[in-house]
Design a protein that fits this description.
Helicase, Ruva Protein, domain 3; 10 strands; alpha+beta; 4-stranded antiparallel sheet; DNA-binding
Length: 299
DNA sequence: CATTTCACCTGGTGGC
DNA sequence: TGCCACCAGGTGAAAT
C-alpha cells in the first residue's frame, strides 16, 4: 500500500497526535507475523516510555522513545520541532537510553490514532494505550508489515540504506544508476538505491520524465537522469501535499483518505487515453510488478 | 556481485 | 450464491 508520500502523511499525522504522550500499556494480538523481535521484547521497550517524536525514514515509520521512567516532557510537546530534528539530536534529558519503535506498513498496514472505545478492526495486531486517553493501533490484513523495537544503547542507529529521493542532488542521483544494466523502473524500486519509491510513484515519475520503464538504468543520458530526479521529486511532493494516493483502502493516521490518485496519469490507467496525446496507456509486467506507460510520450 | 523470480498473506473483483 | 483465477501500494530469500 504505502509509498513515501503515504508513509510521510501517516508519520506526520501520528507525530502530531501522540508526540509527548506516555505509553501506558501495550497489547499485541498475535505472536508471530509482524514481529521482527518478540512481542514481549517490544512491549518491554514501549511500556512506560514517552514518545519523543515520529518521523519517516524511507518507507519506515520511526517512533523515538524516551528512556524508561522519564517524566513526560511538557517542553517537548510544546516545542513542535520538525521530526528530523528529533533524529538529528535528542535532548540531553532523555539521551541516556532511548529506543525506537520501527513500523513498516508492507502492502496493507495502517497506523491509526483512535479512542480506546473505537471498534477494533479485524487484523489489528497492536494497540498502544496512551496516557492522554488516545490509542495507537496497527492493523494489517496481509501481514506483510513489520514491527520492531530497537535499543540505541545496544545497536547502531536505524537508517534506511537507500538515498532519500527528496534530498538527493543531481550527481549522486546519476551515480545511483551509472553502469547498471537493470531496467530504470526496477532501479527506482530498489530500496537500497533510493528508499521510498514504490510502484505508483515509479510509474508516475517515469511518465512525467518521458522515459520508458524498460530502459536500461545505466544507459539514460545525464539529462534524462536529471529530468527523472526532478519529476520524482515533484510527484512525491505533490502527493504529500494531497495526503497520498488512496487506491483501495489507504487512510492516514486519522482515517482520512488521500487525493493524489486523482492525479495519476498512467498508474492503473491501462487502455485509457493518455492525458497528453490520447494514445492508449500500455500495461506490462516488469520486475514482477504491473507497469503502466504511454508508448507515445515515453521514449 | 548484480539481477530476476518467487513466496509470503488476505481480500476484492469479475467471469462463468 | 458459489467457485475460481487474477490482481493488489512491499520486501527479502533463493535462484540464475
Amino acid at each position: 500500500m504505502p509509498e513515501l508520500p503515504e508513509v510521510e502523511t501517516i508519520a506526520r499525522g501520528v507525530d502530531q497526535r501522540v508526540r509527548g504522550d506516555l505509553i501506558r500499556d501495550v497489547w499485541f494480538g498475535s505472536k508471530r507475523e509482524p514481529f521482527k523481535n518478540s512481542p514481549a521484547r517490544q512491549a518491554k521497550g514501549l511500556e512506560g516510555r514517552t514518545i519523543l517524536g515520529v518521523e519517516r525514514i524511507g518507507k519506515h515509520i520511526v517512533m523515538h522513545l524516551s528512556a524508561l521512567s522519564q517524566p513526560s516532557s511538557e517542553g517537548l510537546r510544546r516545542e513542535a520541532r520538525p521530526p528530523h530534528a528529533v533524529a538529528a539530536g535528542l535532548p540531553h534529558a532523555v539521551a541516556a537510553v532511548p529506543g525506537q519503535w520501527i513500523v513498516h506498513l508492507g502492502m496493507t498496514g495502517r497506523l491509526l490514532v483512535t479512542t480506546p472505545d473505537a471498534p477494533v478492526a479485524p487484523h489489528t495486531h497492536a494497540r498502544l494505550t496512551l496516557s492522554s486517553g488516545r490509542e495507537l493501533r496497527f492493523v494489517d490484513p496481509r501481514r506483510f508489515g513489520r514491527l520492531e523495537f530497537r535499543d540505541l544503547a545496544k545497536t547502531k542507529a536505524f537508517a534506511a540504506p537507500g538515498a532519500e529521493p527528496l534530498q538527493i542532488g543531481p550527481e549522486a542521483f546519476a551515480a545511483l544508476f551509472r553502469g547498471r544494466k537493470l531496467a530504470i523502473k526496477a532501479a527506482l524500486l530498489n530500496q537500497s538505491l533510493l528508499s521510498g519509491v514504490g510502484n505508483i510513484y515509479a510509474d508516475e515519475s517515469l511518465f512525467r520524465a518521458g522515459i520508458r520503464p524498460r530502459r536500461q538504468a545505466g544507459r539514460l543520458t545525464h539529462e534524462e537522469w536529471e529530468r527523472l530526479r526532478l519529476a520524482l521529486r515533484e510527484v512525491l511532493q505533490s502527493a504529500i501535499r494531497l495526503g497520498g494516493s488512496s487506491v483501495s483502502d489507504y487512510v492516514d493516521a486519522n482515517g482520512v483518505r488521500g487525493f493524489f490518485q486523482l492525479e495519476h496519469r498512467v498508474y492503473q490507467r491501462f487502455a485509457e487515453p493518455c492525458l497528453v496525446c490520447k494514445t492508449p496507456i500500455k500495461r506490462i509486467v516488469l520486475a514482477g510488478r504491473s507497469t503502466h506507460y504511454c508508448p507515445h510520450c515515453q521514449h
